[in-house]
Design goal:
By secondary structure, the chain is an alpha+beta fold. The chain folds into 2 domains: 80 residues; 59 residues, Nuclear Transport Factor 2, Chain: A, CATH 3.10.450.40. The chain contains 4 helices and 4 strands, in the order ααββββαα. The longest helix is centred in the last third of the chain and has 35 residues. The mean pLDDT is 90.
Length: 173
């Protein structure tokens, strides 16, 4: 008597071991994914965008924008070395000055007035979500295989869902 390949046993084992292998990365992905879905609605995650005096008419130089951002002690900006990026929003009349320390200062592009400053958590949450917070290679070697295993679990789950119906259908014939 020869033993053949049993799809039922294989799909159950795939589910069992797959779920075990990806449990921690999936918890991280789901938890951070929920937070990222809410980032525009929850100010704690990402500061809301304010509006400046005049839209589409910037008059400040980048150095003036940096000087305005440096007036916020909480942000701790001392020079361009502390700045990660400038996010120019012409339609809102502001520039978001984002520091490497995750602080964000919003400056009016006409007056140079600081409109708002806050700690920006969304970038940290995104790096946790894609795995880059742990290590650059974690995206490729942990979180990508997690996605592939989750996809295979979805396929085998659909198979296990349909299987009883096909067995009943064959018995009725």
């Amino acid at each position: 008597m020869t033993k053949g390949f049993h799809w039922n046993k294989w799909t159950r084992k795939t589910h069992y071991w797959g779920a075990f292998a990806i449990s921690i990365p999936i918890i991280i992905i789901i938890g951070t994914g929920i937070l990222l879905q809410l980032k525009k609605d929850v100010n704690w995650i990402q500061p809301p965008t304010t509006e400046g005096q005049i839209q589409n008419s910037p008059t400040l130089s980048f150095d003036e924008i940096l000087s305005a951002a440096m007036t916020v002690d909480e942000a701790g900006f001392k020079s361009w070395e502390d700045i990660d990026r400038l996010d120019v929003r012409l339609e809102e009349g502001i520039v978001k000055v984002r520091g490497k320390n995750r602080w964000e200062v919003q400056v009016d592009t006409k007056s140079g007035k600081v409109l708002q400053f806050a700690y920006r958590r969304s970038d940290l949450i995104e790096s946790l979500h894609d795995g880059s917070w742990f290590h650059d290679k974690a995206k490729l070697w942990i979180f990508l295989p997690t996605g592939i295993i989750l996809f295979s679990m979805w396929i085998t789950g659909v198979y296990m869902l349909i299987l009883p119906y096909t067995v009943k259908w064959k018995r009725k014939k």
